[in-house]
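Sequence in, structure out. Go.
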Amino acid sequence: MDEFAPRAKGAAGPKASGDDDDDDDAKSIRTTTTVYTSAVRGARSVIAGGGASGGAGGVSALTPTRETTRLPAICYKENRLGKAGARWVDTPEALAQMLEAIEALPEGALDVLAFDAEWGAPLEVATTLSTVQLRPGKSGTAAYVVDVTTLGATVFETATASGRTSLRRLLEDTATTTKLMVDPRCDAALLWRIYGVKLARVVDVQVGFYAHRCLVRGIDPHMPSGTTIIESVLRFGGANPRRTTQFMRVVEVAAKRLYRDDVAIWDRRPLPPLLRMYAALDVMYLTRVWAAIIKLLNKTDVAGCRPTDIVNWIHKASDDRVEHGRSGAYAPSPASSLAPPFTPLLYTTTAQRDSLSPTSLC
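Output:
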C-alpha cells in the first residue's frame, strides 16, 4: 500500500512528530488569505507592493490570461512576510541579529539547516545572487530571506561577536549541520564561482523523496517537483495539504509570470513582496518534509534493501550533485531533470550498515 495514499474520511491516526509546530506556519498563512480573483488586478497589486511601476529599471505589467490568479494579501503588501513566519534581512544590523539568533539556538537545534538561493541571470553568466533563504533548526524557528544584492559578499563573511557563527561557516560545515536543499547543483555552482563558498554536508530532499517513490511505485526517470514533494509528505503526515499547496502553487505561478520576461527584476530593489514570499516558501517546509521522508525510509524493506542502504545512496547522490554543480560542467537542460540511477546497494558496505542509522540525518 502506498503510504502517500490519503486517509479515509474521518479516519483517526497519530500526527507526525512536529506537526503542531509546523502547522503554525500554515495557520499564519491561512489567516491572511484575502484574495484578488482578477489576474490583471492581482498583477497590478503585486507591482504596486514592490514599488511604483516605472521605478528603478521599471516593472512591466503581467500579460492578462484566461486563468484566474488568486493572490493572498500577504503576497503584495509590504511588511507581511513576517505573518508567514519569515523575516527579510537587508541591513548589516539585521544580518548581525540573524546570526546572533542562530548562535543562540539550543544545542542540537542546528543539526539541520534548510537552504536555498535565488538569482536572475542565466547560470552561465550570473555574477551575483539576489537572495539566500535559510531556516535553521527542526521546528518552531523563523525563516530568513537575506538580500544578497544589497549586502553583497558580507552576507557570507559577517560573523557573530564570538566569531563562531557566520553563513560561510554554516554552509561549509562538514561535521554538524546538514543542509537540506532541493536540487543544489545551480546553488553550489554560483556559491563557489562567485563567493568561494564550498557547500558541504548537503542532503538533497528531492533525491530522498525520489528514493522512496522508486521503492513504492517503481523506477521513474524524472525527479518530482518541490511542490509535489511537499504535498505528498503533508498527506502522509495526516494533514490536508490542499490549502498549503494551493497557496504555494499560486505564489509560484504568479512569481514566474512576474519575472519570466524580466529576470533582471531579481536584481532591482525594492524586491516585490511576491518574490520575497516565493523565496521564503522554498525553505519553510523542507525540515518537516525531510523528517517525514526519514520516517518513510525507516519503514522500507524491499528485496533486502535496508533503510541504511537507501540513506547511503541519498548521501552519495546528493554529494554527486553538489560536486557536479561546483565543477562548472553543469548546465540546466531537459536532460538535467532526469534522476540519477537508483542503485543504493552499490554504495553500502557491511561497516557502513553497522555504523549508520537513517535517524542520524534528522
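Check: The chain has one domain: 19-28+86-361. The radius of gyration is 20 Å.
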